[in-house]
Design goal:
It contains twelve helices and nine strands. It is of the alpha/beta class. The structure holds S-adenosylmethionine.
Length: 276
Amino acid sequence: MTVKTALRQGYDLLAEAGLAEPRLTAEVLLLHALHRERIYLYSHPEHELSTLEWLHYGRYLHERLKGRPTQHITRVQEFYGRPFRVSPATLIPRPETEHLVEQALQTAGGARTLLDIGTGTGALAITLALELRARAVATDLSFDALQVARHNAAALAAPVDFVQCDLASALTGPFDLVVSNPPYIPAAEMATLQPEVRDYEPHLALLGGEQGTEIYHRIVPQAERLLTPGGWLIFEIGYQGEAGVRGAFAHGPWQEVSLTCDLAGLPRVLRGRYTP
Ligand SMILES: C[S@@+](CC[C@H](N)C(=O)[O-])C[C@H]1O[C@@H](n2cnc3c(N)ncnc32)[C@H](O)[C@@H]1O
């Protein structure tokens, strides 16, 4: 069995099962079995798979066909050009969340200290700490997620401290920038999620209460306690979350509250400036 034939067979199986991106998935799973970089698939199409490589590739395809996310099989997802370990305890970082990074770099490029609330893999805290050359603190309720985030920070040499607590309740600050991509799926929508999300990703990372915006109303007052005057609070929001999250900013000392949409044109990032 050559690389070329293995790719074709993997593609056929995944495409027949109706899975998204069958070619890319077959490539990623085969590379994982071969322990190679992507270029190898095209520079060595006649490479004969060893028995072990073939067995591993077959097992990965089988797991994917049963619904397991590719990133849970390879245990890695790229975010803003860097590899992040993922686990069943962490949300798989999404490309849409890179929009928050871009907005934070544009809006708060001078931040020296930042806080990421609900850090998961650490994707936001680590990326922003490295891009801004800032010191970061990141929180999560999940001990297992924080273990993964700590691993990622060490692997990427990012200056991030991790704290297990409810939102930012254990912290004193001050911070120049607070970011958060909290759970924001309304309870009624959980059943409608793709099975690969609903059945494999942690509900602690997904479920945002009845409306999906309640957690933002808890974060905003905490940010008021922690931000330096003039500092920014920047949220990722769900596609229906804008009005509810704007409401969270409405009664406090917030100015320059504004929304940006992602590449798909969906409301994605809402920010406000703490102006006491
Ligand atoms: C949507 S995920 C975002 C993860 C990561 N920031 C990202 O963008 O990929 C939300 C994260 O918030 C954490 N979380 C949920 N409720 C929390 C709470 N009350 N306090 C702290 N973290 C919480 C979850 O464990 C999860 O890691």
